[in-house]
Amino acid sequence: MGFSFEVVGAKAAESGAAGVAGGGGRRGRLALPHGVVETPVFMPVGTVASVKAVEQGVLEGIGPEDVGAQIILANTYHLYLRPGHELVRRMGGVHRFMSWERPMLTDSGGFQVFSLSGLRKVTSEGVEFRSHLDGSKHFFSPEHSMDVQIALGADIAMVFDECVETPATWERTRESMGLTHAWAQRSKDRFEAEKHRAPWFAEREGATQSLFGIVQGGMYADLRRESAARLVEMELPGYAIGGLAVGEPREVTREMIARTLECLPKDKPRYVMGVGYPDEIEEYAKMGVDMMDCVLPTRAGRHGLVFARQDGAVVRMNIKRKEYAEDQGPIDAECGCMVCRRYTRAYLRHLFVAGEALSATLNSVHNLHFYLATMDRVRRELAGGSAV
User: Fold this and answer.
1) What is the pLDDT of residues 109-123, one digit of tens each?
2) Domain that includes residue 74, residue range
3) CATH code: domain of residue 205
4) CB atoms within 10 A of CB 142
5) Quick one: which of 132, 225, 327, 344 has the fewest CB in 10 Å?
6) pTM for this one?
7) Is residue 94 part of a domain?
8) Residues facing 104 on adjacent strands
9) Identified catalytic residue from 107, 147, 290, 332
10) Annotated catalytic residue 293
């Protein structure tokens, strides 16, 4: 199985609070070498080939009717530093290394290098940076990012890009965007020349990895449109919207997504990187976004923040609060996850206060289920729409 994407249903968007509608939600089917993904989809983040605190077998069963995570994300920068991409290649690729046979996506490492701030130096050739682990010096170019991602062997790789800081001037943002476009072309050229070297290539006749582009342009709608147009010219199989959820107001995030969606092909998957809270991913899916990822479900869980739904609205619950010390109810009475079926708020609070490792696992499992169930509900709502 190679790569294909089909829109099987769609509905018109409803304007949000700021009057920004986007292109309308759609139900799709994304076929990849390691399986089929029903969209819109949320991708749990497995930064170092591990979704924190959640074992792969559990991850496969989290979600409505125990369907589990359809696709997860791993991080190029972190796996390059430890254990090293060539070791992962020798182990048969990241799927075999972490015992995950469902689809996977790797990011390019661009955002992680961007987040290093004072530890990096950007030139037209690439980025020199110092490892956050030991201070050792490294260099990432578009070509090197492709080499690492091909060695890891995820179904979808991402072009190497630069994420501009927020706030940034229009001039600074356009300069950064130009670098992203040049790096995208170099990424594509290297990827097309080397993609046959994916660890599983020989085992899956006719199947290769796929490379997605990343639209940048900061918080400027005109630059977002320009960036989308440039990337669409490269005829990539899918497109991501990057550089958002980096401190800007939510209404700005929403507007940038909407304006960018207007410029992206309707017959290709559209991915917003690094967002967000459950109500946000639902809103963006109904605007026409097909794929999203975020570390929030597990990061929040490790800090005692869990999500529930009350009267149709998402609420955030700090399970460590004293008010839950004798609460016999589940996190969410309407949730069907393994945590809510078995454990009380009182017990979950006890685990957190006692510093038990099980606390991070149970909170993360619930939060992941909440996210995946949200996307499952959106897909069912979109199932009755007409194909476009």
Assistant:
1) 888 877 777 778 999
2) 4-295
3) 3.20.20.105
4) 25
5) 132
6) 0.95
7) yes
8) 72
9) 107
10) yes
Q: 258: which residues sit within 8 A by CB, 6+ positions away?
A: 20, 21, 22, 23, 287
Residue 17 has pLDDT above 50, yes or no: no
Provide φ and ψ at 311, rounded to 5°: 55, 40
Number of domains in the chain: 1
Separation in Å, CA 295 to CA 16, 113, 263, 279, 326: 25, 17, 27, 15, 30
Give residue-wise pLDDT tens across range 324-358: 999 999 999 999 999 999 999 999 999 999 999 99
Inform me whether the pLDDT recorded for 272 exceeds 70.
Answer: yes
Asked if 126 contacts 139 with a C-beta cutoff of 8 angstroms, the reply is yes
> Are 242 and 230 a contacting pair, CB within 8 Å?
no
Catalytic residue selected from 147, 155, 161, 293: 293
Degrees, nearest 5: CA angle 161-215-93? 55
Looking at the domain assignment, is residue 192 inside a domain?
yes
User: For 310, phi and psi rounded to 5 degrees?
Assistant: -130, 125
Contacting residues for 56 by C-beta, under 8 A, at least 6 apart: 98, 99, 100
User: Angle, nearest 10°, between helix axes 142-152 and 170-194?
Assistant: 50
Write phi, then psi, for 47 (nearest 5 degrees).
Answer: -50, -55
Q: Which of 310, 316, 303 is nearest to 364 (CA)?
A: 303
The rounded distance, in Å, linking the Cα atoms of 140 and 125 is 9
Whether residue 363 is contained in a domain is answered as: no
Please check whether residue 356 lies inside any domain of the structure.
no
Is residue 332 annotated as part of the catalytic site, yes or no? no
